[in-house]
Design a protein that fits this description.
Blueprint: H1 3-30, H2 33-52, H3 71-91, H4 99-105, H5 110-128, H6 140-167, H7 169-203, H8 223-229, E1 236-239, E2 246-249, H9 250-267, H10 272-283, H11 287-310, H12 318-338, H13 344-372, H14 380-411, H15 413-419
Antiparallel strand pairs: 1-2
């Protein structure tokens, strides 16, 4: 198995773990009356503001951002959150990857989409997290070292985003789109290869151990991780005591946190999809400890980054954030119920389709951005065709998936009620 293949498998494991966390957050909020009241208290005034069409957004370069809270923008954000929630709940991985691309495809500028997406993750975390349930899976030394690194990384990533945007908003759009295109290409094309391979195996009657999402952590500690664990730069952290006990220098954990913090701030995501390959493949940390630490880092990293690197500079669109939160909470519940009545292979196929659609959408705008920056001599007409095709593919795939899931849900609604 190639190293890139191992990275993909672990990225998927991280995405699956984060999807489970999102489902738990949704359950904790929607099944708790006090949290529901808080959610309504947050959303109601924003909904009223959107109806009135009042209040320009604060900060940032308003010429490049939505200038008014409108009912259309609020409803659109709920739809985007709903679609992401359906993917997360139904497929169990990858829903968050489409939020920033979807907002950008809808006309929201990249830096605002990133800041808003990350703020919605933080809002969901602080409303839904019950830390004591997961503390048993957290190594305090690793968690503290990691968060120190992720805070420094988020600061760096936020600075890079703002600096690029200040230099040229078009360059910022190109930068964010290229980063997303690369990540979604890795996930999408490897996922497609997995899907084709598994489909052929099933047709031949071959029984495989691959689950609906594919991938997983290596069964043994990698050679790279063993080499890193031999370096004893103090202070040295003890971890995985339930798995024989291991030690690692804080400098490596902090460095990994730094990388995750940068990516989280640049992409507006939780960072789970990179925490897994880096922790398991590079550091040799067990999956339970990785899951627990990742949940903790999402709260601190997303909170710190969204507030100090985006919100105070005016790069969080609160109407969008609350709409995303509301839509995703509902979507996750519907998606999770739908998995009970549909084949896993079909779900997996839809996941590959949506990820590749996101890749096509972000990749389609890059030629136009490079043309605007005078880095590529290509006609405006050709760029317009690329963008049109990218939008048709993206919204068509997302819309098709959402309609299919909602249709399946309402078709089986009676059965779900009887089970409940």
């Amino acid at each position: 198995m190639s190293k890139l293949r191992k990275v993909y498998d672990l990225m998927m494991a991280g995405a699956v773990a984060q999807a489970r966390w999102e489902k738990q957050m949704s359950d904790n909020i929607l099944k708790n009356k006090k949290r529901l009241i808080i959610l309504l208290a947050l959303i109601t005034p924003i909904f009223l503001i959107s109806i009135l069409g009042a209040a320009d957004i604060l900060g940032g370069k308003s010429a490049y951002a939505p200038s008014h809270y409108t009912t259309t923008v609020f409803v659109a954000s709920i739809a985007v959150g709903l679609a992401a929630g359906l993917i997360t709940g139904c497929i169990g991985a990858g829903g968050g990857f489409i939020i920033t691309p979807a907002l950008m495809a809808a006309g929201v500028k990249g830096i605002l989409a990133v800041g808003t997406d990350q703020f919605h993750i933080f809002a969901k975390a602080i409303m839904g997290t019950v830390l004591h349930k997961k503390l048993g899976n957290i190594s305090l030394g690793i968690a503290v070292s990691f968060v120190i690194g992720s805070v420094l990384g988020a600061t760096t990533g936020g600075y890079i985003q703002r600096a690029v945007y200040s230099a040229d908003p078009v360059l910022s759009e190109a930068f964010i789109s290229i980063v997303y295109a690369i990540i979604l290409a890795i996930l999408g094309f490897y996922g497609l290869a997995d899907y084709i391979k598994l489909s052929r195996a099933r047709k031949k009657g071959v029984v495989t151990q691959t689950d609906a999402h594919g991938g997983g952590a290596p069964l043994t500690t990698t050679k790279l991780a063993l080499s890193i664990q031999k370096v004893k730069i103090p202070p040295v952290i003890k971890f995985d005591q339930d798995f024989g006990g291991k030690t690692i220098s804080w400098i490596f954990v902090t460095s990994i946190g730094f990388v995750v913090g940068i990516l989280a701030a640049v992409m507006g995501v939780g960072g789970g999809f990179v925490t897994f390959p880096l922790f398991v493949y590079v550091l040799g940390v067990s999956t339970p400890t990785t899951v627990g630490t990742d949940i903790l880092q999402i709260i601190f990293t997303a909170g710190y980054s969204s507030i100090t690197q985006y919100a105070i500079y005016g790069y969080v669109f609160y109407t969008l954030a609350m709409g995303l939160l509301l839509g995703s909470l509902i979507g996750i519940q519907i998606g999770a119920l739908t998995t009970k009545v549909v084949p896993g292979m079909l779900i997996r196929g839809f996941w590959v389709m949506t990820i590749l659609a996101g890749f096509a959408n972000r990749a389609s705008v890059v030629p136009d951005k490079l043309r605007s920056l005078n880095l590529w001599k290509i006609s405006q007409g050709a760029c317009d065709i690329f963008i049109l095709v990218g939008n048709i593919v993206f919204w068509g795939a997302i819309g098709m998936f959402a309609i299919w899931v909602l249709g399946t849900f309402f078709k089986n609604l009676k059965a779900f009620k009887q089970e409940g």
